[in-house]
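Notes, p. 3: input format for complexes.
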Amino acid sequence: MRKLSIAPVLLVVCLAIVFAAACGGSQRGGGAAGPAADAFVPGLGELMSLQQMRHVKLWFAGQAANWELADYEVDELGEGFDDIVKFHPTHKDSPVAPRDAIPRMVTQPLADVRAAVGRKDAEAFVRAYDALTAACNSCHQATNFAFNRVQRPESNPYPSQAFAVARP
Ligand code: HEC
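Output follows (168 residues plus heme C):
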């Protein structure tokens, strides 16, 4: 009789343990979804700082006729602009939205740089680079950030990176 009465109690206790474990698990699951929901998204200024780095490296790659590196930096710039359109389609009270301005203003100049790099044409590269730089600044003007003015880099801030093509 005593045995019989303890069995359901045990069952309830077991069920409670299983349930608590399952709930705990799902709470942890929810906890994992939580951070994903507010995952870190770099601000436009941060993404632009990365674009600035690539823009600088692109220049030194072109000056060193390191077309492979230049091609890589053009790709990175393209991906950076894709991220900007994705994460910052609009920006504050900017009269021009990045999602509209980027395809209109930088896609072609970037394609022209890519073409010059593909042809390993140093002169065309410089022309296309300057046009790209002008496009960067046109967008800064259009978005009311004209005070962010970029130019050909005056000196190389990356002494740890070899820009010259490696000689075997
Ligand atoms: C959508 C138009 C647009 C284009 C195209 C664009 N920018 Fe920007 N850029 C902005 C805006 C808007 C800001 C200000 C972001 C903020 O509020 O922090 C900015 C900021 C910057 C900054 C300042 C970052 C800082 O925090 O110091 C740099 C540097 C920069 N851009 C470089 C570039 C370069 C280089 C290119 C071209 C390869 C480029 N930008 C193209 C809109 C643009």
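The two ends are 89 Å apart (CA to CA).
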